[in-house]
Each structure stands twice: as C-alpha cells, then as structure tokens.
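Thread: Newbie trying to understand structure tokens

Hi all, I'm a second-year student working on a class project, and my supervisor (Dr. K.) asked me to get a predicted structure for one chain before our next meeting. I've only ever worked with sequences, so writing a 3D structure as a token string is new to me. If someone could post the tokens and maybe explain what I'm looking at, I'd be very grateful. Here's the chain:
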Amino acid sequence: MNHHEILEMLPWYANASLDEPTRRSVEAHLRECAECARELEEIEKLERSMKEFAAPVPEPSPFLLTRAKAAIEDYERGRWWPAIPSFARAVMAAQLVLIVALAGGVVYLKQPGGGFTTLSGPTGQAGAGPRLTVAFQAGVSEELARQTILELRGTIVGGPSALGLYTIQLPDGAGLGAALARLRENQRVIRFAQKAAD
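---
Reply by user tm_fold:
Sure, no problem. This is what the structure looks like when written as tokens:
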C-alpha cells in the first residue's frame, strides 16, 4: 500500500478494525513514516476526548413511549385523518376535487361528440341548408371574416381545422352555387371555397 492509502486506513487502525495483513502493513509503514505516526497520535487523542465528553444516553420516558405507541395504534386503526392539521386537510380535499374534475373532463372528451366545437354556432347538429368549406386569406381580421359569413346568412359549424378550413352552414333554401360564386369573387377575404364533403 502507498502512503495515501495508509493515511486513509489510520482511523480503522486506531479502533482495531483492520484485518491482520492490513494491520501489519500499516504498522510497518508507521515505523518508517513520521507524518503518518503524528496523524495516528491526533486520531487517538480525538478518540479519547470524544469518550471523555460523551454524554450518557438518557432513558426514554415511559410516558412518551406509551403516548407514541398509542399514536401508532390510532394511525393503524384509521384515525389518522383527524390528526392532520386542518389546513393540510383542506389542501388534500382541494386536490381530490381537482383530480375528480380532471377525470370528468377526460371522460367527457372521450365520449362521442365530446370533442372540440366552435362557439359561433350550433354544435355540429345537421342543418337543412347546404354546407361550405372555406379558408380565409392570411391576415384577414376576425371582423371582416364574420361580416363575409353574415352576408351569406351563414354560421360557422366547424373549424378551424389544422389547414385553417372552416365549415359554414347556410340557411335552408340558400343557393349553393350563388354563395360559392360570391365567396370566390371576394379574393381579398376568401382564399378557398367549395361545397363541404357530406
């Protein structure tokens, strides 16, 4: 073993916990190395002073021990909820309400018809009039888009899709060809217009 390894072994040598071959190696090194011998003396002094000043460990109070056992038994019997501070109980209850609300939202979204809908008109109910698929020009204001749809007496019933397409429901009896022609002429607002797929 080298000098550094011997230095690391000195605390174990001082408390006699090294195996026999390692102990002999440390002793041989200590006979030749004054630095390690001084370090061992310091370790032994520290050990002696710790033993001298070590406070006796007090006996546990029988009252506290009985009380701790009773608290453990109460907890095991299920009486732990009242033992929790009221603020912590309120936080736990709020978390439970939030979890239930989130779970309800997930269940709602997984039901048929529980997905995304627009707020501008009927929620996907089939109307009697024709439907159009429309895409607005980039940068068109919401007010201008709304005005264009209102001129046709239409209602947005779907969209925007990932491609920016909207589904417009026209009133019953509205002429599909006339509405498409009118939209296609308005190239300042409309980028694309066609009859919606059935």
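A couple of things are worth pointing out once you decode it. The longest strand covers residues 131-136. Confidence is low (pLDDT under 50) at residues 118-125. Feel free to ask follow-ups in this thread.
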